[in-house]
Amino acid sequence: MTSFPQFPRQGEVYLSKALRQSGDTKKRPVVVVSIDLRNQYSSTVLVVPFSSDIASASSNPCRPLVRKGEGGLEADSIAMCDLITTIAKRYLEPSPYGIISQDSLSKIQTAIKIAVGLF
């Protein structure tokens, strides 16, 4: 039986080291949004960071809400799709917290499209 190496999968939530390019100074949960085929062969992944400051997202179409518990999130959080970024896999904690629902992933993908003008 052949075993395949593990790699981050689309929709999985990880704790990431500080995303300095977006001004972060602390670890933050992120969701992997790049497709699995890319994730398998690349040393990097595309991620969207989360924030529990949901008040800052009121009516921002680029920041959909993801409920507490989904993907292992400890609080209701917003996916900051306007801050999509590429990070090296080594900056992710070794194991995912969990995986978000297909519905939440679809909302995040739509918000990314809005953020980059593909709507």
Automatic annotation (TrEMBL):
One of its GO terms (molecular function) is RNA endonuclease activity. Keywords: Toxin-antitoxin system. GO terms for biological process: mRNA catabolic process; rRNA catabolic process. It holds the Pfam family PemK_toxin. Belongs to the PemK/MazF family. This is Growth inhibitor. It comes from Dactylococcopsis salina (strain PCC 8305). The lineage of its organism: Bacteria, Bacillati, Cyanobacteriota, Cyanophyceae, Nodosilineales.
